[in-house]
Amino acid sequence: MDWSDVLRGALSFFLIVTGLGLGFLMLQMAGVFTNVASALRRITDEIVPILNKSQTTIDGVNQQLEHVDDIMESAVGATKTTERAVGSVAKVVSAPVRKLAALAAGLEQGVATFRARSAADAANRDPAAPMGPPPTTSAPPPGPEATPTGETRHESPYPTSGAES
Fold this sequence. Notes:
The chain is mainly α. The chain contains one helix and two strands, in the order αββ.
């Protein structure tokens, strides 16, 4: 027996141990995959009904949204109809109101004119009666003044501090 036979024996032993180790790992992995498959089945069994209920709920919400959409469309239609009605009423009412306001202003002017003419007629009949407010006397506007020495002095419209110029 030489060294090549020992190496072949060691290699054979290593390969047999490696094969047994790989076989054991494969058996362990088969158990893990079995557990994963059963977990997936349980999850699927639980999730599918939840998804079905969710779909039913979403369908109900969509139906309600369609109802809300119909309600909103009818509300918009009612608003437009109301807007047109208010516009029509405003047009119908505003013209007579404007005419009434013009009539009131005309009457007010007429009464004022009548009173003024009556006062003027009364003043023409009685010359002693005053026609209006008494006249006010006011000082003549500032202008050049002659001083006792004959110089012309101009008054300033601005107040002075007491010193005359």
